[in-house]
Amino acid sequence: MSSGFPLLSLIIWLPIVFGVAVFATGSDRNAALARWIALVGSLLGFLIAIPLGNGFDTTTSAMQFTESYPWFERFNVNYHIGIDGISMPLILLNCFFTPIVVMAGWEVIKERVSQYMGAFLVMSGIVNGVFASLDAVLFYVFWEASLIPMFLIIGIWGGPNRVYAAIKFFLYTLLGSLLMLVALIYLYQTSGGSFSILDYHQLPIPFTPQILIFIAFFLAFAVKVPMWPVHTWLPDAHVEAPTGGSVILAAILLKLGGYGFLRFALPITPDASHYLASTVIALSLIAVVYIGLIALMQADMKKLIAYSSVAHMGFVTLGFFLFNAYGIEGAMVQMISHGFISGAMFLCVGVLYDRLHSRQIADYGGVVNKMPVFAAFFMLFAMANAGLPGTSGFVGEFMVIMGSIKISFWYAFLAATTLITGAAYTLWMYKRVIFGAVASPAVEGLEDISKREFAILTILAIFVLWFGLYPYPLTDVMHASVDHLLNHVSNSKL
């Protein structure tokens, strides 16, 4: 379905244009102007994205809101964009979080304000481009470009080891992406000179090349998710990144890897995906079990939540390679849910860090005595992170476990251990930080959350509860696209 109005292009380019406008405000003497332009641009980006949901036809798996214009005609490269039930929720999630991070940094960021706000707006448009691209070259350009704003956000506004963390983040993701580029060039040659991603889905690729292409895609997307054992860049990046950087990294950028599996690896190399599924499932279960245990040992709140993200994203890759509707839809619900929950958890840590300038669990204790409203919000998000029924954190994990038990009891058993380890590391952290007597003079001087912080956490709490109690809007949107993907992959099974 093609839309007469270039809505998708507007969703991609409007945040980028506003980001450039924010950069143009220049020095910190114009910081207030930069903040307001960033807020207006991010809110407009979200409001423009709402018609995607309202006008989306949930009964078809066909691409919608499509646009196609020649770009490099000599090489058959086109500006071809469109969305389906897999990409549309992720674009809405990205557009939702952009104003959140702008508001979160409103008072906290005092130096290079225009560059900070502008970087998030530009990244928002670029990420929308990744999710909407139907041309392989366009996808690759947006994919690589998304590294630049986050590299700068970590490297400029991060902690003491920010340069090391930024370079590690950049190199890990860049090296994986180069292998993906090789695979895309091979597909271009095999398809007779087409860069259309949808054309690649129909290519009759022999088994051995499929294996090699799958490995190239797997390395690119596994690093981004990130899967064990290529996850080590994530804790460093989270610990050093400013709060807004951690929020977008966890809520949005990790989802690029999951999206890549659904758009490239599974439909283009279905035989290889089935053949290597047990390996991916094993790596995913290691992430769920082993990384969950590592999270128990962390003394830094951000590092604990970072390892928690690796464990929760293990459910995503597990669900994808079960090849049933419960697994894939559950994995997609988990991606969206993890965006809200991990974003909220990092914002809560940011609230404490802005006041005490410490992320060490041992430096806190008795916070509830001074910040009861904050403690209530933090409790909700901690419970959601632990997978409490009634929150969005439960729905995706439950669906993946249901999908797992159709394949193997042991897959389901090992995946379900996250309900124990997740509760252990999350609630143990919460207990030590929030409960007990006031532990130090610094905690004694804490003040409860401001109206701005209250508004941000309230919005996130609403979505965590909404999708926990009524996930149908999410599953309805993705159902036709997931069924189409499963039929395609199953028909190509060895």
What would you say this structure looks like, in words?
With 494 residues, the protein is mainly alpha-helical. Helices cover 73% and strands 3% of the residues. β1 and β2 (77-83) form a beta hairpin. The two termini are 32 Å apart.
Q: What distance lies between the first and last C-alpha atoms, to the nearest angstrom?
A: 32 Å
Number of H/I helices: 22
Proportion of β residues? under 5%
Order of helices and strands: HHEEHHHHHHHHHHHHHHHHHHHH
Coarse structural class: mainly alpha
Helix content: over 70%
* Uncertain spans: none
What's the short version?
The protein is mostly helical. The chain has helices at residues 7-24, 31-54, 88-104, 113-132, 136-145, 147-157, 162-190, 197-200, 207-224, 233-240, 243-268, 270-275, 277-296, 301-320, 325-356, 372-385, 392-407, 409-416, 418-434, 441-444, 451-469, 472-491, and strands spanning 64-72, 77-83.
